[in-house]
Amino acid sequence: QSALSQPASVSGSPGQSITISCTGTSSDVGRFNLVSWYQQHPGKAPKLLIYEVTKRPSGLSDRFSGSKSDNTASLTISGLQAEDEADYYCSSYAGSSSVVFGGGTKLTVL
Amino acid sequence: QVQLVQSGAEVKKPGSSVKVSCKASGGTFNTDPVSYAINWVRQAPGQGLEWMGGILPMFGKTYYAQKFQGRLTITADQSKGTAYMEMSGLRAEDTAVYYCARETPSGTYFFDSWGQGALVTVSS
User: Fold this and answer.
1) Fewest C-beta in 10 Å: which of A7, A71, A85, A108?
2) Given pLDDT bands bounded at 50, 70 and 90, which one contains residue A77?
3) A74 with A19: CB under 8 angstroms?
4) B49 at the A interface (CB within 8 A)?
């Protein structure tokens, strides 16, 4: 499978909201409601932010939210904070017990 | 919550094999009533995440990304609460941090716990 398509970088100022897109195909993102999002700080393991398109793990800030329309999923971070500066990855179930990740988006908090 | 602890960094020659372990601290696999899977994800230096495959320890069922078929073997020892990722025919481009990640329950395809990662360097 081909990697999901994400913008290489996005930026925003503290307090603002940003949205990261994740574009797949009708065989992965468009077909299954099994999109998840991860945050990764340099030198650290990824951390789950969103699963099944819109759900947040227990205890995670509600500043993080997910959505999907057709073949594109989105992650929105509201009330940007300095600690949100990190790399963000989407992933999707792609059928036949396989998973595909996006290429990653670097978020810069200005 | 179960934490995943991986084995340490490895340096390997091209053409050789590497085996990385992932231990579930706090309990063995079969004390968890929920059937879950252990997946492996790698990240080359400065690159993104790449899913490799996974295993359902309770059933021993494995699944692999097509790219790694024939070179990758994922196993699990339930009594030790440990999963293993073994890759053969190593090439320079296999240099990466290899992560194990738990999928709970299995069949949900999201990863709620990750190991700390194991750097595998392939160099002559």
Assistant:
1) A108
2) very high
3) yes
4) yes
